[in-house]
């Protein structure tokens, strides 16, 4: 029997190793690649073309939401299952709009993750009862006009969101230019436009905005190896 091939995108090594053991326990699923960043996940999907991509949202360099968008833009038939520590309707709704077919919170058991992978492979979607209920409530609030508009980055372009995440992670202009394959001058131009658009004119403010928007975790590892304090 041909096994279901999976790429596991998760930046924490212990979590990734534990998930691999749990997911492969049934014998019908094979982890063919492990990605530690969103960019690695995008490239790995193109190289390996797995049946399913299991994607954490809080990924460095390119978060899981943006990585999902890029994967599905290049390969519309790709199937992405999101893992996240967050279960509020706004996170789930963003994931659905990005094209992911499933959403699980990280407290889910290995058996549930494996079941979700099998369901997606069979052409179905998979949301736990709590997530489905949360998503339904979110849509109801939105349709009733009483949904709360959370401070977010939804008005930013995809490029501006990528730039914001890299800035919040502590990358300097030269590193950002290399990561995005653009010139330092272009980075500076994008950064200024981003600050003007958000009316935020310092790195700390941009970092706080990125955290509030769910683009990065509340404790960010900078490129210098120092932890930025949680806010």
What key phrases describe this protein's structure?
231 residues; 13% strand; alpha/beta; 6-stranded parallel sheet
Oligomer: single chain
The number of strands is 6
Percent range for helical residues?
Answer: 40-55%
Helical stretch tally: 10
Described by strand count, sense and barrel closure, the largest sheet is:
6 strands, parallel
The percentage of residues in β strands lies in 5-15%
> Regions with pLDDT < 50 over 5+ consecutive residues?
142-154, 218-231
End-to-end gap: 50 Å
Anisotropy-based shape: globular
**Arithmetic mean pLDDT:** 78
Secondary-structure element string: EHEHEHEHEHEHHHHH
What's the gyration radius in Å? 18 Å
Strand order of the largest sheet: 2-1-3-4-5-6
Structural class: alpha/beta
Describe the structure.
- The structure is a single chain.
- This protein has 231 residues and is an alpha/beta fold.
- It has ten helices and six strands; from the N terminus they run E-H-E-H-E-H-E-H-E-H-E-H-H-H-H-H.
- It has helices at residues 13-24, 38-48, 64-74, 89-98, 110-121, 129-144, 158-168, 173-180, 184-198, 203-212, and strands at 4-9, 29-35, 52-56, 80-84, 102-105, 126-127.
- It has a six-stranded parallel sheet, with helices on both faces.
- Helix 1 links the parallel strand 1 (4-9) and strand 2 (29-35).
- The protein is globular, with a radius of gyration of 18 Å.
- The relative contact order is 0.10.
């Amino acid at each position: 029997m041909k096994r279901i091939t999976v790429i596991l995108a998760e930046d924490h090594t212990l979590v990734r190793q534990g998930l691999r053991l749990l997911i492969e326990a049934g014998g019908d699923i094979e982890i063919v690649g492990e990605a530690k960043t969103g960019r690695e996940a995008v490239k790995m999907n193109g190289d390996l073309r797995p049946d399913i991509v299991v994607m954490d949202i809080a990924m460095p360099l390119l978060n899981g939401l943006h990585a999902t968008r890029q994967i599905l833009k290049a390969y519309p038939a790709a199937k992405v299952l999101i893992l996240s520590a967050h279960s509020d309707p706004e996170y789930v709704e963003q994931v659905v709009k990005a094209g992911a077919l499933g959403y699980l919170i990280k407290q889910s058991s290995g058996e549930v993750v494996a079941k979700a992978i099998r369901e997606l492979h069979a052409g179905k979607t998979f949301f736990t009862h709590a997530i489905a209920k949360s998503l339904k409530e979110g849509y109801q609030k939105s349709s009733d006009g009483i949904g709360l508009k959370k401070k977010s980055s939804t008005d930013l372009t995809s490029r501006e969101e990528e730039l914001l995440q890299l800035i919040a992670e502590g990358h300097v202009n030269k590193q950002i230019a290399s990561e995005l394959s653009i010139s330092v001058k272009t980075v500076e131009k994008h950064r200024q436009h981003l600050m003007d658009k958000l009316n935020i004119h310092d790195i700390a403010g941009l970092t706080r905005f990125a955290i509030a928007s769910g683009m990065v975790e509340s404790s960010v590892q900078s490129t210098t190896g120092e932890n930025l304090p949680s806010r």
